[in-house]
Amino acid sequence: MLLMLRTFFYTNLILWSQLSSKSLSMLSISFLPSILRSFLMAVMSVMFHQQRLIHTSVKSHFDK
């Protein structure tokens, strides 16, 4: 799970830096928010994934 979060974080970071590198002045401004945004996205996706796993496990438990 931690590895998934880390790879997601790094890919988002690379993506955002590539988008920002079009203008160097924007890079310094948008670099920190991009890190925060990608981190939040990673946390949200992991939380959503866990919630879905819990939901499916509970559902399968009650279906028996």
Write a brief caption for the model.
The protein is mainly α. The chain is built from 2 helices and no strands. Helix 1 runs antiparallel to helix 2.
Tell me the layout of helices and strands.
Layout: H1 2-20, H2 24-63
What does this protein structure show overall?
92% of the residues lie in helices and 0% in strands. It is mainly alpha-helical and 64 residues long. α1 runs antiparallel to α2 (24-63). It is built from two helices and no strands.
Structure keywords:
single chain; 64 residues
Radius of gyration: 17 Å
- Tally of domains: 1
Give the overall pLDDT as a whole number. Answer: 70
**H-E order:** HH
Overall strand count: 0
Structural class label? mainly alpha
DSSP helix fraction: over 70%
State the major sheet: none
Inertia-based shape: elongated
Query: In whole angstroms, how far apart are the ends?
Result: 28 Å
Number of helices: 2
| Strand content bin | under 5%
Low-pLDDT parts are: none
